């Protein structure tokens, strides 16, 4: 028993030693892999670094085991103890023992822990050197691994055009879906900027080409050359048996030289989105984007949709929307969210499209809310845009909306859409100069976008810089002569300076164009109606607007239909002085299309409340006001100007002048700084505060606003001229009285016959005042 115990102790000791060594090695390996993973995430090392470290560790494992075995043998022999040598060591001596010792001696010399550790350090140092050389070459654009940005082939934030994917499959929509998916993923890039489709459409219009035609590789390069863009992304999808091969390449627009290319394979149609994701990210890497930022992006199927059918419908809707076919895009977007109820991008697009059509407020709110609820399924850019749209359009929280757009700009400083939307919030808060700086910056980055010009024109007029506004209008007219802004904003600019002859001349020239689309034709018609309104030509304005109302009625757009019909009723109420006829018009409209045909959020309760109080139907006005306030509460809308105007007019009717003024001041919100002034002047007038009336009306006339003709001048300006003339006459200020009477006569000189008695009365006042001593001659 004693002999057996003595011989098994060294073996047990060696086994325990080997186990401890392996545990230490595995623990160290785990730590090395964790550190490598952290470096890959934080520094942006290539993906192949991690498997390379695993290979080094696996190669080192046999060395560690061998070293442990050798060292444990000699360690066991050296620790047997003096008492054991006399019997155990003697028994071990002999020819076999001498042979084993002879073999083990060199192994002990070579397989030492010092040499094993030095070997590991050297191997990892060499591997680190390889990685460092690769990263250096990539950073400095050297060799085949050098990034395009580092090599100076393209610049950081370079604008590039994405051509339509060349589709070799039997599915006609698959190429379109692949293009849109690729665009979505590439839009996350921090190294390049993909030109927006809307800008491409406008570029094609400048080239006198059909913007609806496919943007193939040759056409994309031609557009790029004309727009001063260096590179074009070209893609292709090809069936290979049951699988699909997707390839993409960045080419020089000037000579078509390939700058970088990559391809991926999808096992079947369900894997196409994943293949596009890999393809896009690999190209972004080669262009020079940080691997860390690329990895921070969620997989494409998670930020879009895993449903190829939903993606097909979404991409088709996007294309239609870009072509201005918003009505046709809506059913496709609705089908997309039916296939994938969490498809946040489709929900957002649906809400924005409905907003562009200015219809179906309830569906807008639902769509934007769904997009917000599923915002984890969006790219960073789309997520911040969605949050901004939701906070601004649904939650009525402009501060959080601005924070969302600013967060997007922190990630993508050159994102012009974020600039535009943030500027609109500043504009709505009447920070006109701050807004204009952002609009101007957006124009610098994307000088082809008509939207930024249009918004910049508004802000420049708001600060009184008509010269800069006129320059931008001329620029947009040169670029896009058929654009609705080009056709109508010239008249708006002229009318904002009260130059209606120039406004009419510009409209006349615009009307000669025969190649404008339906949207532009409607915009022209409504502007012509506004110019007729301001000149008292109500019959002509009514004719034009009724044609527009009929078009909206036939399209089932009852929100815009009501808007037009109520405006016509205001002619009788505010300009013709026929309240009974105005009420009859509204009752006929309500009988023809009851308000119940509209969703509660789309019912014009506030407008009707204002209408009825001005018509002297107080109880009906209160009924409409209560309904409007209920809708406002439903939307958490504390500052609805129409509701507060109605409340103000009802308070004034009840003799509560202070409350009426308070309500008007509450209603004085939003971008238009002069729109509340006519109502405020009327309330001061009813209260007998004539000095305040003069001050408010003078401020109204001096406050610049681009769309004042459409906003309030159409019903208020003539009456303000008349009233100011009368008040200055009462003050004994003959010159000012004559001046305002002249302005009134000039404005309504060609007004309808039913309005001419007021014009004749003004002429008689001018004659009478001019005959008084001290009156200035004209």
Secondary-structure map with pairings?
Blueprint: H1 2-43, H2 49-78, H3 82-92, H4 95-110, H5 113-140, E1 158-162, E2 166-167, H6 174-186, E3 192-194, H7 197-206, H8 217-227, E4 231-240, E5 243-252, E6 258-266, H9 272-287, H10 291-296, H11 300-303, H12 308-322, H13 326-339, H14 344-356, H15 361-373, H16 380-393, H17 398-411, H18 416-428, H19 432-445, H20 450-462, H21 466-479, H22 484-496, H23 500-511, H24 518-534, H25 538-554, H26 558-575, H27 579-592, H28 605-614, H29 618-634, H30 641-653, H31 657-667, H32 677-686, H33 690-702, H34 708-731, H35 734-747, H36 756-770
Helix pairs in contact: 1-2, 2-5, 6-9, 6-12, 12-13, 13-14, 14-15, 15-16, 16-17, 17-18, 18-19, 19-20, 20-21, 21-22, 22-23, 22-24, 23-24, 24-25, 24-34, 25-26, 26-27, 26-28, 28-29, 28-30, 29-30, 30-31, 31-32, 32-33, 33-34, 34-35, 35-36
Structure description:
The termini are far apart. This protein is elongated. Among the domains are: 2-144, no CATH class; 158-303, 3-Layer(aba) Sandwich (Rossmann fold), CATH 3.40.50; 676-778, Serine Threonine Protein Phosphatase 5, Tetratricopeptide repeat (Alpha Horseshoe), CATH 1.25.40.10. The chain has 778 residues and is mainly α. Residues 1-7 and 77-98 have low confidence and may be disordered. The chain is built from 36 helices and six strands. The longest helix has 42 residues, at 2-43. Strands 1, 2, 3, 4, 5 and 6 form a six-stranded mixed β-sheet that branches.
